[in-house]
Request: fold
Amino acid sequence: MSILKVARMGNPVLREKARLLDPTEVRRPEFQKLIDDMIETMNEYRGIGLAAPQVHESVRLVIIGIQGDDEDDDPALKIIPLINPEIAPLTDELVEGWEGCLSIPEVRGQVPRAPRIRVQALDRRGKRLTLDIEGFPARVAQHETDHLDGVLFIDRMRSLSTLTYMDEYARFWVKD
Reply:
């Protein structure tokens, strides 16, 4: 496995609409390696999600981390690859929440997102899967899927007044 170079804001790959993947491509060893490399890259940079365009691959693949709950046998982070994901909100409500991005390092801002969503995608074996996700994992899935359409979190912000560097975020926005 390899740690991949992360594209930063300004790189045209982050503004392209990524290509749909044919299910036959998913089983190929080079695609499986891309998934493994993206997981390793996300972990190296302590991310909670990563989209293929962020590692210079304009295909519809995202990796998201979902924390297990107390009732789960394994409360550890579950890392899920989603291929050709489609997201549908399960509510009309939008909730503001803080987001950051590996492609815009050291910056955070508040973004409105649906708190509950349904994701339909292919898993890493090319099988259809449907997930109902809520809370922070829903935010992560929406953020990463936006990357597949060339959208950055700053594009979704209602106001740039909360756009802040991490030092100032910790100093002025985080409540103890």
User: Anything to note?
Assistant: The beta strands are 49-51, 61-67, 77-89, 95-101, 104-113, 116-122, 128-134, 164-165. Helices lie at 23-26, 29-44, 136-147, 153-156, 166-173. The chain has one domain: 12-173. The domain at 12-173 is CATH 3.90.45.10 (Peptide Deformylase).
